[in-house]
Amino acid sequence: MKNIDFKKLPYVGEAVDQKKQFRLMYIPDIDTYFMAIMIWWVAPYERYYRIEKADYELYLSNKDKFYEKFSREISNDPAVCFTENFAGSPSLRDYDGKPNFQNAYPTPDGIVNPFQHYGFEDGILYARIVWKDSEIYVPPVQAIKKGEKFGYPLRKRCELQNDIHGRPICYKFKCRGD
């Protein structure tokens, strides 16, 4: 797991789509292409989706085919947009935990917000949550609809994190060696 401040990573080759409100970029430091889709919520933010270099090139050569390929992601429909391409966001509401899970434990002195950027592994931006006595990495929600139910592929890499009363509050990345 590599700790990163995603907003401070330099990117190249930005392509902005005003019509569908997203941008594409390549981040050399982590060798990954992303589509950043604007989300209009209480405070606007972006959701980040991993794409391949070929997808980036498809956008440049044929926008309609790109729109078709990524129609679920671009839709922002919660029933279908959290695909296996969803890599993370700056909003913890898009992560696999109960509301305000990050406040379950006290933070170290001097840290007000327990959400301290990301841990990056295998193309995923895990929310790095820093508490006084521990640090965890929470996966973004990838909710893949299968019939009437949803599958959560990132949960296979994770285990439940409980609060002090033993109630589950979120999933956390199971670090190698745990």
Describe the structure using short key phrases.
four-stranded antiparallel beta sheet, 178 residues, five-stranded antiparallel beta sheet, mainly beta
Explained architecture:
With 178 residues, this protein is mostly beta strands. 12% of the residues lie in helices and 38% in strands. It contains 3 helices and 13 strands, in the order βββββαααββββββββ. It has a 5-stranded antiparallel sheet. Strands 1-7-8-9 form a 4-stranded antiparallel sheet, with no helix packed on it. It has a two-stranded antiparallel ribbon with strand order 10-11. Strand 8 (124-130) and strand 9 (135-138) form a beta hairpin. Helix 1 (53-61) crosses helix 2 (63-69). The mean pLDDT is 94.
The strand order across the widest sheet is 2-3-4-5-6
Give a short account of the largest sheet: 5 strands, antiparallel
- What would the average pLDDT be, to the nearest integer? 94
Which class best fits the helix and strand makeup? mainly beta
Strand content: 35-45%
Helix coverage percent = 10-25%
| Number of E-type strands | 13
**Outline type:** globular
Rg, Å, rounded: 17 Å
Please trace the helix and strand order, writing H or E for each element.
EEEEEHHHEEEEEEEE
Termini gap: 13 Å
* Tally of DSSP helical segments: 3
Low-confidence stretches: none
Task: Give a brief outline of the structure.
The chain has 178 residues and is mainly β. Helices cover 12% and strands 38% of the residues. It has a five-stranded antiparallel β-sheet. The protein has a four-stranded antiparallel β-sheet with strand order 1-7-8-9, with no helix packed on it. Strands 10-11 form a two-stranded antiparallel ribbon.
